[in-house]
Design brief:
The chain is of the alpha/beta class. The chain has 2 domains: about 160 residues, Rossmann fold (3-Layer(aba) Sandwich); about 90 residues, ProC C-terminal domain-like (ProC C-terminal domain-like fold). The chain has 11 helices and 8 strands. It is elongated. The two termini are about 35 Å apart.
Length: about 270
């Protein structure tokens, strides 16, 4: 029997996941969603979904997996409203940042299998990176289905303990912003050297794309790729020396740690 997947919330991330699932072969009849926004539901109807509604009545009926895709501050109200529909046969995949499994279980019910996921925004173009952690009651079949869902929009990995999701938040969840900031800084530096802003941004974007693709496709470690571009006494060496003197590695480490610390604090607040 084909798995049935319900979506609580139909915002950008949910829409991206639904598009990804359709692209890898899920039928529209396997997917359903509830969202208070008619505009969001119209986007799903355009994708071929017919089981969409502003009401949550019957949302989880015969559903194998519920993707809880609402904002963290709305999650308590949203899950509490559908609690009577949930049981051990429907696993909940939460993509809300910061809410621990203990809190999710208190909202959904102690018998409900809970999986937490930390995705990132490149999932909206199928280039996401998602990390998952499942509570003990999640079955192998439910784990596999959750991974199918997240893999439809990019890379999926499992972490061994829930606390590691704070590190995931710091590395990949918030990570796109670090690279956006670097792109901005390099493009602005190119403009200050005389390049037209649009030319500098185009070169910077293509360089970022090319470097990421090369790192992903090459059998060489990233450190060796960096060394291959760095000729002794050359221009790249001077640039990297300037970054080292400026404490580049230390600044990145400090930023990532600050993000992880904040993720931990938010989790404690939600807990």
């Amino acid at each position: 029997m084909s798995p049935q997947i319900a979506f609580l919330g139909a915002g950008n991330m949910a829409s991206a996941i639904i598009s990804g699932l359709l692209a890898v072969g899920f039928a529209p009849q396997q997917l359903r969603a509830s969202d208070p926004s008619e505009e969001a539901l119209a986007r799903l109807r355009a994708l071929g979904l017919s089981q969409v509604s502003t009401s949550t009545d019957g949302l989880c009926e015969d559903a194998d997996l519920l993707v809880a895709a609402v904002k963290p501050q709305i999650m308590p109200q949203a899950l509490s409203a559908i609690k009577p529909q949930l049981g051990s046969g429907t696993a909940v995949l939460s993509i809300a940042a910061g809410i621990p499994i203990s809190s999710l279980q208190s909202l959904a019910g102690p018998s409900v299998p809970i999986i937490r996921c930390m995705p990132n925004t490149p999932a909206m173009i199928g280039k996401g990176a998602s990390a998952l952690f499942a509570c003990e009651s999640v079955t192998p079949e439910q784990r596999a289905l959750a991974e199918q869902v997240t893999s439809a929009v990019g890379l999926s990995v499992w972490v061994e303990t829930e606390v590691l999701l704070d590190a995931v938040t710091a590395v990949s969840g918030s990570g796109p912003a670090y690279f956006f900031a670097l792109i901005e800084a390099v493009a602005e530096a190119g403009t200050s050297l005389g390049l037209a802003p649009e030319v500098s941004m185009s070169l910077t974007l293509q360089t970022a794309l090319g470097a990421a693709e090369l790192a992903g496709q090459s059998d060489l470690p990233v450190s060796e790729l960096r060394e291959n571009v760095t000729s002794p006494g050359g221009t790249t060496e001077q640039a990297l020396l300037a970054l080292k003197v400026g404490g580049f590695d230390e600044m990145i480490a400090k930023a990532v740690k600050a993000c992880a610390d904040r993720a931990r604090t938010l989790g404690e607040e939600f807990g």
